[in-house]
Structures are given as structure tokens and as C-alpha cells.
């Protein structure tokens, strides 16, 4: 349903995404995981053509049968208002601070063609669905009167109002404390399953992504270095970077923020080595690694890009 095919994004000539090939099937949840600056947000933004000024994208992003790069203004608006919903890290950036929660949700529903008289009732139902209590009071409140966790539930309720085919969630719970994080993610996942919506879930927290998603794609310096089924993460992770993420102990950086630490500093996409993007930090790097770029190839239950991995010779059936 969503397909990135050799997507490359440059900003003023400097690559941010080097080569992203990834698909999300209808109803599937895919986690896009990596340290900050690895290109996760840019990948998500490219779906709705929300790239910053000066950005140039090559390769394709397909949503259903549509090449997103060829959509006109009306097509893009339709996609943004009906087919694809976004949930960002900071719910306060999504909700108008001076309007009530009721007005915010009512407006979303009115945009979907719901009548004025039905919209208020539907808004209450949406809030109840995402586990918000005291619904009548909440509808009258303004964003600053709600905690971050509650407000993120409101944003999720709004995202689900359109029963979107796809939800793009960019670190939706990073700003919340760990317990609230887990509750909010569980609600998002439960409800989107009921609606049949697919999910592209961005996180720097590998374990959290694995708990939510069907498949995990690990990103490093603007490239995807490994893709594997979430339930095989611990058994089948083969890329040295994924293994380093798994070994690293999450340290508490800010309230609720679990940040895995891998020795060395993250590589930026624009001055990555010609060969493997992880070469500067990889404990197993060999001569070939700096010069020859490893391709993302099948291994065990997934795909990984590393020269050290044994490759099966394709058998002729
Ligand atoms: Fe490490 Fe080389 Fe594999 Fe890259 S290709 S991950 S540098 S061993
Ligand atoms: Mg980001």
C-alpha cells in the first residue's frame, strides 16, 4: 500500500536520505527505528510531500497506485485529509491552543462531512474510544488544561476519525513518561487495528517499536540497514548496528525518554563513507567495508546490508 523505492532526498545538494526502499502492506505496522538524524522523520515527511524548502527527492514514493511525486494540489489535499493521518511527537503542535477540545474534534468531523448535530456526539464517542474519561468536561477544556498523555489521545482520536488507510506516527510518545507511553501506544495500536489502518511508527526505541509493530526497519545515516519481523528481533538481528542497538542499555535522558546508546557518534548522511554507512563505528569493519557499499539482501527472516553476512546461493526450483 505504501512503497518507498530507492528514495533519495537532498537538501541544497546534501543527501539526507541516501537510499530508502521499504514497503508497508495494508493493515500492517512497520517500525522505523534509528538514532536521531538517521532520516526517519524525513522518510515519513516524504509520504505527504512535507519536505523542507530546498529539498529534492528522487526515486519513488507510491501510495496505492499513486506516485506521490506526481500528485497535484487537490490530490495531495485529499490524501492528507482522508487517506493518511499523522501523529507527531508534540500534540501541542497539532491542536490549536485557544480552542476547546470539542471544537477541534468537531471541526475534524465536519471536514469529513459529518453534520453539525452529529459531530458533537461523535466527538464524545471518539474520545471515549481512546480511553479518555470525563468526556463531557474534556470537550469543554482547552489544550493547556490537559496532560501531554491525554492530549496525545485527543490527537489520536482525531487521526482515527477518518479511518485512514495509513497512520504515520513520528515518535508519538517520546515526550511522555514511560507508563503513559505504553498506554498511549497500546491504545493507538488497538484502535488502528479495528479501523484496519496501516501504521508507520517512527521511534528511537527499538523495544517499543518491536512491541507495537509487525516488522522493524533499522535506519542509519539515511539508509535502511536491516528489515526483520518484530517477533524475530532478538533471534535474527544480523546487522552490527542493530546488534549494537540491542546491546545498548537504554539510559534515561529526559523524563520518559529511553535513548539507546551505541559507542561513537552517529554518522550524518551527507558525509557518509562511499562504502558501508556504519563503517566508522562498526567493531567488525574490514577493508572492503569503507569502499564498497553492501546491498540490502535476504538473510534469515529478513534483509540486511552487511558484507560479513553469509549469502545463500539462490536455488533453482
Ligand atoms: Fe560493519 Fe562492514 Fe558490515 Fe558495514 S559492511 S556493518 S562496516 S562489517
Ligand atoms: Mg525525528
From TrEMBL:
<dbReference type="InterPro" id="IPR013563">
    <property type="entry name" value="Oligopep_ABC_C"/>
</dbReference>
<dbReference type="Pfam" id="PF00005">
    <property type="entry name" value="ABC_tran"/>
</dbReference>
<comment type="similarity">
    <text>Belongs to the ABC transporter superfamily.</text>
</comment>
<dbReference type="GO" id="GO:0005524">
    <property type="term" value="F:ATP binding"/>
</dbReference>
<keyword id="KW-0997">Cell inner membrane</keyword>
<dbReference type="InterPro" id="IPR003439">
    <property type="entry name" value="ABC_transporter-like_ATP-bd"/>
</dbReference>
<dbReference type="InterPro" id="IPR027417">
    <property type="entry name" value="P-loop_NTPase"/>
</dbReference>
<protein>
    <submittedName>
        <fullName>Dipeptide/oligopeptide/nickel ABC transporter ATP-binding protein</fullName>
    </submittedName>
</protein>
<feature type="domain" description="ABC transporter">
    <location>
        <begin position="2"/>
        <end position="246"/>
    </location>
</feature>
<dbReference type="InterPro" id="IPR003593">
    <property type="entry name" value="AAA+_ATPase"/>
</dbReference>
<keyword id="KW-0547">Nucleotide-binding</keyword>
<dbReference type="Pfam" id="PF08352">
    <property type="entry name" value="oligo_HPY"/>
</dbReference>
<keyword id="KW-1003">Cell membrane</keyword>
<keyword id="KW-0813">Transport</keyword>
<keyword id="KW-0472">Membrane</keyword>
<keyword id="KW-1278">Translocase</keyword>
<dbReference type="InterPro" id="IPR050388">
    <property type="entry name" value="ABC_Ni/Peptide_Import"/>
</dbReference>
<keyword id="KW-0067">ATP-binding</keyword>
Amino acid at each position: 500500500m505504501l512503497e518507498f523505492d530507492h528514495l533519495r532526498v537532498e537538501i541544497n545538494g546534501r543527501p539526507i536520505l541516501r537510499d530508502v526502499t521499504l514497503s508497508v502492506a495494508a493493515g500492517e505496522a512497520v517500525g522505523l527505528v534509528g538514532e536521531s538524524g538517521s532520516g526517519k522523520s524525513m522518510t515519513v515527511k516524504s509520504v505527504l510531500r512535507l519536505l523542507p524548502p530546498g529539498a529534492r527527492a528522487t526515486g519513488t514514493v507510491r501510495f496505492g497506485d499513486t506516485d506521490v511525486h506526481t500528485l497535484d494540489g487537490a490530490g495531495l489535499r485529499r490524501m492528507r485529509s482522508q487517506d493518511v493521518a499523522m501523529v507527531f511527537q508534540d500534540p501541542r503542535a497539532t491542536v490549536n491552543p485557544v480552542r476547546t477540545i470539542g471544537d477541534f474534534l468537531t471541526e475534524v468531523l465536519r471536514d469529513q462531512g459529518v453534520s453539525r448535530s452529529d459531530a458533537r456526539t461523535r466527538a464524545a464517542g471518539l474520545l471515549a474510544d481512546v480511553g479518555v474519561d470525563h468526556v463531557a468536561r474534556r470537550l469543554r477544556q482547552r489544550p493547556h488544561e490537559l496532560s501531554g498523555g491525554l492530549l496525545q489521545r485527543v490527537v489520536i482520536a482525531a487521526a482515527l476519525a477518518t479511518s485512514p488507510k495509513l497512520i504515520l506516527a513520528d515518535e508519538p510518545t517520546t515526550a511522555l513518561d514511560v507508563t503513559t507511553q505504553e498506554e498511549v501506544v497500546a491504545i493507538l495500536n488497538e484502535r488502528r487495528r479495528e479501523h484496519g489502518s496501516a501504521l508507520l511508527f517512527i521511534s528511537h526505541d527499538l523495544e517499543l517499536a518491536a512491541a507495537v509493530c509487525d516488522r522493524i526497519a533499522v535506519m542509519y545515516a539515511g539508509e535502511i540497514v536491516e528489515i526483520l519481523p518484530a517477533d524475530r528481533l532478538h533471534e535474527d538481528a544480523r546487522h552490527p548496528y542493530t546488534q549494537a542497538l540491542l546491546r545498548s542499555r537504554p539510559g534515561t535522558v529526559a523524563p520518559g525518554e529511553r535513548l539507546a546508546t551505541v559507542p561513537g557518534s552517529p554518522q550524518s548522511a551527507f558525509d557518509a563513507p562511499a562504502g558501508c554507512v556504519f563503517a566508522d563505528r562498526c567493531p567488525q569493519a574490514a577493508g572492503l567495508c569503507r569502499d564498497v557499499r553492501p546491498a540490502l539482501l535476504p538473510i534469515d527472516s529478513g534483509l540486511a546490508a552487511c558484507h560479513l553476512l553469509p549469502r545463500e546461493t539462490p536455488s533453482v526450483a
